[in-house]
Predict the structure of histidine kinase.
Amino acid sequence: MYRSFFKENNEVTLLVNPESFDIIDANEAACKYYGWTLEEIIGKQINHINALSNEEIQAEIKRAACENRSYFFFKHRLANGRTRDVEVYSGSMELNSQNLLYFIVHDITERKLAEEELRRKEMQLRTAQKIGHVGSWEIDLNSGNVDASEEAKRIYGLEDEQITLKRIQNMPLPEYRPVLDKAMNELLERNLPYDVEFRIRRQNDGIIRIIHSVAEYYAERNAVIGMIQDITEYKQSEKSLVEEASWRRILMEQSRDGIVIIDQNGKVFESNPRYAEMLGYSPEEMQMLHMWDWDIHYTREQLLEMLRLADNKGILHETRQRRKDGTLIDVEINANAAMFGERKLSFCVCRDITGRKQTEEELLNSKLAAEAASKSKDQFLATMSHELRTPLNSIIGFSDILLEEMFGNLNEKQKAYINNISKGGKHLLNLINDILDLSKVEAGEMKLDYEKFHVSRAVDEVKASIVPLAVKKEIHLDVKVDPQLGIIRADKTKFKQILYNLTSNAIKFTREKGEVTIEARRFGKLVQISVKDTGIGISKSDMDKLFQPFKQLNPYLTREHEGTGLGLALVKKFIEMHKGRIRVESKIGEGSIFTFVIPFDSKDHEQSRTKN
């Protein structure tokens, strides 16, 4: 019995000591399989031929117990070092009053490879179906059972449910049921192609999808095998493409700009009616033209090279084109290139800008003429101002000498006349000085002389010089300076001139016994100065004229309150030169507030802005 079971057995069989796991015997099939002689194999531990680790062996033993099977899957090592997948059946037997283990070993390497290849192909099929939204199905007409792939179930929305013929038949929208039944009957009865397109309402989410299905009938199995594909996105894309083509055609035909498409040979591939109209050709004539037929700036070779180098980044340029009648038009071209299959096309949107170019040229000529006139005006003002200063200084000087009665006593009438001469001369000199300053600012010749000074002292100096004006009209002049304001760096002379002009204006337009307040405080990194009065106020309609040179707000006010119309214009210019700004708040009959701000360090602020 031992010989028939063991020695003469054609299956690979090993006899093992259950305590030491030493191999105590092997049949001829085992020696031949492993590549060892009987003497070499006897005495080896079973672990020597098992290529798995102890942990892997124990894990497989546990799996076998859980699955209630009497065989194990191991990897065995042969004498030549190669490993093979094996299926090992194990049992116990008694030989010569000794309990032993026997292992019957089946080589399953080829089977494992075949199973792995099958799994790989199934995975590829599942992946392909998932990517292509294609599912497969089979209906056994004898039993009515349905077998469907995972992707088919996903398409139907039946991933977690049992798929049945009734469920599938209920999924298409009702209006498609007759079409599907007819197609199936024609397949079964006349073997006509089953190729249908329909809509379903998915089982799990109720979403409507568009389905394409084809199938064949296998009479020998009495079964229908087919596939379904979710073509919803494809149909939507197809619809979008049709709509896009329609819109593109509308844009081409209705565009107010000329559109021309050029191929790589420089020939017109397509053009819209507007471009044909621009060049004076018929649409049929346009199809026969090349770029060099209308472009006057480039040679044929240059144009072909431009087409070769064109890409999808686009280029915007202006050129001139020749019409059919020989006249020239200015054209702005926005060109892009794109690949259509293996064909490269250049798309050009062409706008006739002949009118615009003419307008631009006229505007440029007008600008040059205005600049020339402005320059002449500035030169005239500067020259006349200098020429007028000399005699005015003489008039003012001699008037003051006469008023001091250095050449004899004057009667009251003489004093009044000479005083008017002096006063008028000084007013005219101030006007000339303002004109000179304004012309320098506008010509960019005025420079700021930066220095550090205390704001409070500069304000006090302005107050001291302007107090007589306030006293004369019995106006209360109040000054409020933040003691923490400290030192700033600016042009002190210009700063005082700004404040003097604003304060003198406030006094000028404030009635007797009114109030004028100067307030200075810190505002972040800025100095903020406000001059508030209780004067006549400014109307909203006059606000825009405030800082314009030679603009006076009201003829009546001009006669009542003398002025040049340049003071506020210079104030705004000087403030802006300090990189500051000014604003005005006013109400008719209640007064006005002029507020300006400049940086604590105007020079550093100017350098920082220039650097940035």
User: Anything to note?
Assistant: The mean pLDDT is 85. The first helix runs from residue 2 to 7. The chain has five domains: 2-107, 124-235, 256-352, 358-440, 447-611. Residues 545 and 555 are 13 Å apart (CA to CA).
